[in-house]
Design goal:
Elements lengths: L1 H27 L11 H41 L18 H5 L3 E3 L15 H8 L16 H6 E6 L2 E6 H17 L1 H6 E5 L21 E6 L10 E3 H12 L2 E3 L10 E4 L1 H9 L4
């Protein structure tokens, strides 16, 4: 009976390897993406996401092919061995996490990170205090209550996409557009997005008295699957790389471009704040 089961499983495994190998070859020799002319940053972003997704699929298929080959060898070895009544049955089933979904949390190097914020700049503490006033008189490295009543009245606590934030209304509206675009383009990635915090009235770590953008309700820390990014190592979760373009198109600065890389951090740029002020929404 055991040998009969093995004989039945071997063709199935070989067939699975053939299917995966054919898919892998198709992905490897996939022609260049045909992009519409004049697509601008949106097209670049879509193409980049598609290329990254294809690369994940190739890696996942290679891993799956190797797993199937190992199982096939195991079956062949068990057929060649004398039967044993106490030998556990060989079963064929997929175990463990989804390789493609897990790829979004994979930590990779950030390519050309000094140029990820092209065309936009950070709003300095001095600029923010001139626009909104100080969020509180004394700042520390810990999150503390906001004492600026006028600024506090502008804060809103809302559910935005997959997370909950406490931020200024224009930032919330912008963030909602970002998450909508992510959900439309990649629902799997959207479902893995989590927050490590938004409002936090504190000073920039490593400084004295310089208010963080978090202190004004204009910054958000994002992670994938609840895994926090390691600070200042020049690497980040792949999912954050994929969503960064959507934030950039809405005028958000990505912390991956900071001298001390902080790639879970996104904040509204100076240029976007000036635009919102000119529009009368700040």
């Amino acid at each position: 009976m055991a040998e009969t089961a093995h004989m039945r499983a071997v063709p199935w495994i070989i067939g699975a390897i053939v299917v995966i190998a054919a898919t892998l070859l198709a992905l490897l020799f996939l022609p260049k993406l045909s992009l519409p002319v004049g697509g601008g940053a949106g097209v670049d972003s879509a193409a980049r996401i598609e290329l990254e997704r294809l690369r994940f699929q190739i890696d996942a298929l290679q891993d799956r092919t190797e797993e199937l080959e190992n199982r096939l060898r195991s079956l062949e070895e068990s057929r060649a061995s004398p039967p044993a009544s106490d030998r556990p049955r060989t079963t064929f089933r997929q175990e463990g996490p989804n390789a493609i979904l897990d790829a979004y949390a994979k930590v990779v190097l950030i390519a050309d990170r000094q140029n990820v914020n092209r065309g936009i700049t950070v709003a300095t503490p001095a600029f923010l205090e001139e626009m909104f006033g100080k969020p509180r008189e004394a700042l520390s490295d810990q999150c503390e209550p906001m004492t600026n009543a006028k600024l506090k009245d502008l804060l809103k606590l809302e559910e935005v996409g997959p997370i909950r934030v406490n931020m200024l209304q224009p930032a919330i509206d912008s963030l909602r557009r970002v998450f909508q675009r992510i959900e439309d383009s990649d629902p799997d990635l959207y479902s893995l997005i989590d927050s490590s915090g938004s409002l936090c009235v504190r000073q920039i770590r490593g400084t004295v008295g310089r208010a963080s953008t978090h202190a004004f309700g204009l910054a958000l820390d994002v992670n994938i699957q609840g895994h926090l990014d390691t600070f200042a190592d020049g690497r980040t979760q792949l999912g954050l790389i994929l969503i960064a373009d959507y934030f950039h198109e809405e005028g958000w600065v990505w912390g991956a471009g900071f001298s001390r890389e902080d790639s879970m951090h996104f904040e509204v740029s100076k240029q976007q704040l000036l635009e919102w002020r000119d529009q009368g929404i700040l």
